[in-house]
Fold this sequence. Notes:
By secondary structure, the protein is α+β, with helices and mostly antiparallel strands. It is 60% helix and 13% strand. The chain has helices at 7-16, 37-53, 55-69, 75-84; strands spanning 2-4, 20-23, 26-29. A 3-stranded mixed sheet has the order 1-3-2, with helices on both faces. Helix 2 (37-53) crosses helix 3 (55-69) and helix 2 crosses helix 4 (75-84).
Amino acid sequence: MVRSATGLIGWILRRTRFHGVTLPWGIYILPERMDDKALVRHELVHAEQIDRHGVVGFYTRYLWYTIRHGYWNNPLEVEARERSMG
C-alpha cells in the first residue's frame, strides 16, 4: 500500500533527501510527490524485491550492494530505476 509520508517517516525522508521509501509494511512517499508515477513504480519494484528476497535478504543485499557499489550503482536501485522508467 502506498501512503503519504508524514510524521517521523516524512521527517527522515526530508533529512536524507529521499522522496520515498519501501518498508516491509508499506511504501511511503512525500506528500508533494504522491503524483509522481515513476517514483511510485520505483518503490513498487522495491516491494517486489522484498517479496523475491525476503525482508532480511533484501535489506542485507541492499546494504551490502550500497557498500560495495555505492547507492547509484546498487543493483537493486539500478533494477528499480530501469523498471520504473517505462
